[in-house]
Amino acid sequence: MVWRQGGERWTWRTAFVEQLEGAALNYPDDPEVWFTLGELYLHGGANFGWGTWEDINEAFSTAVALDPSFTPYQVHWIEGAIIAGDTATAAQAIEAYRQGSTNQVRLAEFELLSDLFLSEPGGREAVLAGLDRVDPQTLQAASQWGKVGLPDQAWVEQVARRAYEVGGHPWWYFTAADAMVIRGRFDDLEVWLADPTGPIDIRTDYGMLISFLGGDTPETALAFASRGGSCPIAEEPFCSLSMSWAATQTP
């Protein structure tokens, strides 16, 4: 691990970041290298100063240009463009996906996300109001797309609340909670966690977070401690962590 100074900001970089960047220079015709580099930038780079949106765009657009038939390359190109608020690139990437894929659910998902997060105010409100007319499968697919990088987290929360109301998918509940945490709206979060329709594991996870930050543990979060049996493998390791914590909170 090394530290580098960019302007007045110090960032840390690990050896594998430089190795991937070097691989892209040494093997510029390998789409997998560009895709992997883009993945690194998109999922971790913004937090550590590893890559700008221009870097993300270059990585994914290069991978798509080298192998336009492999649609997973296009998926993160679309997502990165939406996070960056780059309407033109998002439209270009969605069109590339339309030309290369027969997955109509995913295409509808990307179009919905673009309409919700790239439309001008007024237009996006109309899209939000019409969520009850969106195909449930499309609405569920859109819930699984990460939204922590979007700049307007108040709007993300509003979208997630409405989508959860319409479709009831756990990831929309989670997204709303995440947007509250990002904005420091912990009073709102406690009210959200008290909703008995919310997934109990997610309510417990965020109740644990409130406790760690020094707040009062929401009573509803403790219900998870009464869940009998062992944790499903698919929910590990978070399930065991949550159950262990909840048990310590129970008198």
Describe the structure.
This protein has 251 residues and is mainly alpha-helical. The chain has 2 domains: 2-191, Alpha Horseshoe (Serine Threonine Protein Phosphatase 5, Tetratricopeptide repeat); 192-251, no CATH class. It is built from 13 helices and 2 strands. A two-stranded antiparallel ribbon has the order 1-2. It starts with a strand and ends with a helix.
Give the topology.
Layout (H helix, E strand, L loop, with lengths): L1 E5 L2 E5 L1 H12 L4 H18 L4 H14 L4 H14 L2 H14 L3 H15 L4 H7 L6 H8 L9 H15 L2 H13 L3 H8 L6 H13 L25 H12 L2
Antiparallel strand pairs: 1-2
Helix pairs in contact: 1-2, 2-3, 2-4, 3-4, 4-5, 4-6, 5-6, 6-7, 6-8, 9-10, 11-12, 12-13
Keywords, please?
2 domains; globular; 65% helix; two-stranded antiparallel sheet; 2 strands; 13 helices; 4% strand; 251 residues; Serine Threonine Protein Phosphatase 5, Tetratricopeptide repeat; mainly alpha
Oligomer: single chain
Order of helices and strands: EEHHHHHHHHHHHHH
For the residues shown, what is the average pLDDT?
82
> Ends: how far apart?
44 Å
| CATH architecture label name of the largest domain | Alpha Horseshoe
Number of strands: 2
Category from helices, strands and their pairing = mainly alpha
Q: Poorly predicted ranges (pLDDT <50, ≥5 residues)? A: 1-12
What CATH calls the topology of the largest domain is Serine Threonine Protein Phosphatase 5, Tetratricopeptide repeat
Fraction of residues in helix: 55-70%
| Relative strand content | under 5%
- Please summarize the sheet with the most strands: 2 strands, antiparallel
Shape: globular
Helix count equals 13
Radius of gyration: 20 Å
Strand order of the largest sheet: 1-2
